[in-house]
Design a protein that fits this description.
32% of the residues lie in helices and 26% in strands. The chain contains ten helices and 20 strands. Strands 1, 2, 9, 10, 11, 12, 19 and 20 form an eight-stranded mixed beta sheet that branches. Strands 13, 15, 16, 17 and 18 form a five-stranded antiparallel beta sheet that branches. A four-stranded mixed beta sheet has the order 6-7-5-14. A hairpin with a 3-residue loop joins strand 11 and strand 12. Helix 1 packs across helix 10, helix 2 packs across helix 10 and helix 8 packs across helix 9.
Length: 399
């Protein structure tokens, strides 16, 4: 009998397990991870940005957890010797029509407590980033970079030191909730848990549905983000992080430039529908998962609304020259030959039946389970705060 079983060994699952053990050392905690290592999917394919909380609606779970989580993460990295760099970023309006949204971002940042952000003129912007093109910007000194896989491994080390267990290569195949416990069946073993915490990321909806009979009303739609890297001789074009003004109606930030903690500069990502939930390559296809996505009523509504944007993103996926043109909006000097293939990641985006792309974190509770059903960016930055939030819900069940 285990007190708490956490499904998913990504950054949110491990942070939650760590927070539970720190606050209630007497509770037995087991993390089940289907891969042979932690941080194998969303966490390990993360761009490594420490987000400040600039974009998120004041008072939302994203805003409150990002701002609290930012401080917790920075303190954790300082204490545990995980390298990070608060290098800062600028958000650039590249045309006059974007100025109202830039002002909205600035006001939102102030409402979220980011008192050190500053509007910058074209001249000031060029002092920060000499090669950037735009009509105005916001300097955000809080933003940083880190290796989230290294953060995850440190969470795992500290969890084990407190007596928590991490079982790798254990895919959860079945959950049977009962009156007093839940039977958890993996490919290797059967467990009995008083409480299950679902942090399964790209499969969080599938696990959540196992915990209750009624439909949960949402589905994970996977979006792949693909990156290029700047070749070494062109990395001098980017001094910090450079972001565009995001489209307020689309849940992605647009192509941008990101310095990496291990060196180098990433450029991207686009946002295209992935043909499988863990489809990191253009031709990675799972017929059943793709069918589930295409037939989900919510996705059909999203596709009808954003089909033009989606086609543009897909075109950039297959056309390096089109991708380059998108990058040239921020830095005109960038040429196609300056780019080499980078990595990719898949975002687990929850979508409801009406076509709503859930913008905020979503936590669904049942009698025997707590399901973290939507935790996209900035979940990595927010991980210790989300872990704290979920752990408090867990501990309430054991009081």
């Amino acid at each position: 009998m285990t007190d708490v079983i956490i499904i998913g060994g990504g950054i949110v699952g491990l942070a939650t397990a760590l927070k539970i053990k720190q606050q209630r050392p007497g509770l037995s905690v087991v993390v089940l991870e289907k891969e042979n290592r932690v941080a194998a999917h969303q966490t390990g394919h993360n761009s490594g940005v420490i987000h400040s909380g600039l974009y998120y609606k004041p008072g939302s779970l994203k805003a409150t957890n990002c701002i609290r989580g930012y401080d917790m993460l920075v303190q954790f990295c300082q204490q545990e010797g995980v390298p990070f760099d608060l290098c800062g970023k600028i958000v650039v309006a590249t045309k006059q029509e974007e100025l109202p949204q830039l002002e909205t971002l600035y006001q939102r940042g102030l409402q979220n407590g980011l008192t050190k952000i500053a509007k910058v003129s074209v001249a000031e912007m060029r002092e920060i980033e000499p090669h950037v093109s735009g009509v105005a910007g916001i300097r955000v000194p809080y933003t940083g970079i880190v290796d989230y896989t290294a953060v995850c491994e440190k969470y795992a080390d500290k969890l084990r030191a407190l007596g928590g267990e991490i079982h790798l290569n254990e895919r959860v195949e079945q959950l049977t909730p009962g009156n007093t416990l839940t039977v958890v069946v993996t490919g290797k073993a059967t467990y009995e848990a008083k409480l299950v915490v679902n942090c399964a990321g790209l499969y969080s909806d599938k696990v959540a549905q196992m915990t209750q009979r009624e439909p949960i009303g949402l589905q994970i739609v996977p979006f792949r983000g693909e990156y290029f890297k700047l070749k070494p001789h062109r990395q001098h074009l980017v001094k910090h992080l450079i972001y565009p003004v995001p489209d307020p109606n689309f849940p992605f930030l647009g192509v941008h430039y990101t310095r990496m903690i291990g060196g180098g500069v990433e450029a991207g990502p686009n946002a295209v529908l992935a043909f499988r939930r863990e489809g990191y390559g253009k031709f990675d296809i799972d017929a059943r998962e793709l069918f589930e996505t295409l037939t989900w009523p919510g996705f059909q509504k999203v596709a009808a609304k954003y089909w033009q944007t989606g086609l543009g993103e897909m075109y950039r996926s297959f056309s390096k020259s089109a991708f380059t043109k998108a990058l040239q909006v921020l830095i005109p000097e960038i040429q196609e030959d300056d780019l080499e293939d980078g990595g990719s990641g898949v975002r687990a985006q929850a979508c409801d039946r009406t076509g709503g792309l859930l913008d905020d974190f979503s936590i669904i509770e049942t009698e025997r389970a707590i399901n973290v059903c939507n935790a996209p960016s900035p979940a990595a930055t927010s991980s210790l705060s989300i872990g704290q939030t979920v752990s408090e819900k867990v501990i309430q069940r054991f009081t």
